[in-house]
Amino acid sequence: MRITRISVDGLFGMFNHDIGMKLDDRITIIHGMNGYGKTTILRMVNALFNKRYSDLRTTPFKEFRVDLEDGSTVSVTKLDGDRATTGKRRRSHGIHVRLLKKGKEVEKADFASPVPENMDTHFAVPPFEQFISGIVREGRHTWRYVPTDEELTYEDVIDRFADQMPPGFFKTEKPNVEWLHHLQKSVKVRFIESQRLLRLSKGNIHRRAHEYESSPALELSVAVHANDLAKAIQSKLTEYATLSQSLDRTFPGRLVEHMQSATVDPTDSIAQLREKLTNLEEKRNRLQDAGLLDKQEDLRFQVPEELQEPTQRVLPVYVTDVEKKLGVFDNIAAKIDLLKDIVNSRFSYKKISIDKEKGFVFRTDGGQPLNPSHLSSGEQHMLVLFSELLFRVESNSLVMIDEPEISLHVTWQKQFLRDLQQVTELASFDVLIATHSPQIVHDRWDDLTVELQGIATEQSV
After folding, report:
1. Is residue 404 within 8 Å of residue 373, measured between CB atoms?
2. In 3D, which of 243, 227, 180, 149 has the Cα closest to residue 51?
3. How many other C-beta atoms can be found within 10 angstroms of the C-beta atom of residue 90?
4. How far apart are CA 87 and CA 109, in angstroms?
5. Kind plus residue range of the DSSP H or E element containing 133
6. Residue 51 and residue 8: Cα distance in Å, rounded?
7. Domain residue limits, the chain
8. Which of 69, 60, 39 is nearest to 191 (CA)?
């Protein structure tokens, strides 16, 4: 389900923002001065639909609303102190979520601040590091979040990561709200933050503090994406092999059935077969260029000018089978081709190709191999961002991108929207961008942008 409008009143106690989504173009751009809440709004949307309620509890606002294409509205407000407090020493944080249809409340749920079972035990300290990726203990009541190098207090950890703790960890269980869970499944949201070049290593999730010193907890995102693409290709190759085995195994029976039932149209069937076989050979070559199939010797079958009737009956079965086999790669091949087109038209003195074992492969114009980690920060940002959009985002999602201009040359910024539009047309998702760059907006100020305005401007409207 698509989001049609996002609005917030009293953000930071000051700002009222209203963002109408540009659904026809599938790209909406918000811009405004620093401190007006662009990134915060993206995080709030992500928090609501990806169950990060602690982000909503700790963000100051009066009411946050998301309108959906079915006419319903999700409204989030703060709980009052009595309902939000579940322990004597906790702060009064909590949210009240409502589903409205035609302005009337039809569902609701309260999410109060969670309190660990051992909160009132003076000497007990929760084992946060056992459950939260990237958390290491530094002191008795302090932790460090390795990906951002932040020092967190006891309450900081609870407020930010409560949703990652296991059932039974808190005195008050999180509400089991089926209506909200169903809504969150139907509204798919992905948040691409401004820090994109490093990812938490899966192999370092549960290490202790001294182990982080000897083994890096972070790895380059380009390496992660290259590995993920290789896995996606291997998955398609497995699907291709399974389908091929099935079709080959059943080919004799289907051929006999076809021979007994089919009639041959003598007018132009040979020309049609020749055209289909030519198209299949061209498609096979494109898949080889995309790195999806191994290059083979030229096995092209030349259709003679005249065919005996039995042969004309056999070839359509063969053609149909090959079309089905190669059709397995249609989606991933189109995405690979687009990624290669974007990268090779932007990067200087180097070219990208795709390898089914390595994912990304780069070579200089002189033919020398180039490790993706040696790309410039701008090149890595572009490669990571478009790889994320093409290979990780589900169709019909809302993708939120914070500051896509980071490390990009001005020329690349001006070309960004055109590249992005090609991606959204192929992959079918909506995009909400927060940016400071006039070059990103380029010539689309009138039809794609929403300005987040300050207090004085809002009061004068």
Report:
1. no
2. 180
3. 18
4. 19
5. none
6. 18
7. 117-173, 224-330, 332-460
8. 39
CA-wise closest residue to 429 among 405, 401, 450, 449: 401
Q: Are 329 and 264 in contact (CB under 8 A)?
A: no
For the record, the structure tokens of 86 come out as 């579940």
- In DSSP terms, 192 is beta-bridged to 401
Class of residue 391 by CB neighbours under 10 A (exposed 0-12, middle 13-18, buried 19+):
middle
Answer for the pair 41, 6: CB distance below 8 angstroms, yes or no. Answer: yes
DSSP assignments along 208-223, one per residue? -HHHHHHS-SEEEHHH
How much is the CA Rg of the chain, to the nearest whole Å?
A: 27
Q: For the chain, what percentages of helix, strand and coil (3-state, to nearest 5) are there?
A: 45, 20, 35
Check if the beta carbon of residue 265 is closer than 8 Å to that of residue 396.
no
Q: For residues 406, 412, 417 and 420, what is the CA-based torsion angle, rounded to 10 degrees?
A: -80
Beta-bridge partner residues of 72? 101
Q: How far is the C-alpha of 421 from the C-alpha of 438, rounded, in Å?
A: 17
Cβ neighbours of residue 410 closer than 8 Å, sequence gap 6 or more? 439
For residues 23 and 448, what is the distance between their CA atoms, to the nearest angstrom?
10
The DSSP secondary-structure symbol of 170 reads B
How would you write the pLDDT of the chain (461 residues) with one tens digit per residue?
A: 999 999 999 999 999 999 999 999 999 999 999 999 999 999 999 999 998 888 898 899 999 999 999 999 999 999 875 454 444 444 446 899 999 999 999 999 998 776 665 554 444 567 787 788 788 888 777 888 877 667 887 767 876 777 677 766 766 555 668 899 999 999 999 999 998 998 766 554 444 444 444 444 578 999 999 999 999 999 999 999 999 999 999 999 988 887 777 565 554 577 788 888 889 989 999 999 999 998 875 555 566 666 666 667 778 888 899 999 999 999 999 999 999 999 999 999 999 999 999 999 999 999 999 999 999 999 999 999 999 999 999 999 999 999 999 999 999 999 999 999 999 999 999 999 999 999 999 999 999 999 999 875 444 43
The C-alpha atoms of residue 361 and residue 78 are separated, in whole angstroms, by: 50
SS3 381: helix
Comparing CA positions, the residue from 160, 324, 314 lying closest to residue 246 is: 324
- For 332-460, give the CATH class: alpha beta
Q: Rounded to whole angstroms, how far apart are CA atoms 318 and 320? A: 6
At 182, is the secondary structure helix, strand, or coil? helix
How many Cβ atoms are within 10 Å of 367's Cβ, its own excluded?
A: 7
**454 is written with which tokens?**
């300050």
Q: What is the reported pTM?
A: 0.84
Q: How many whole angstroms separate alpha carbon 396 and alpha carbon 412?
A: 26
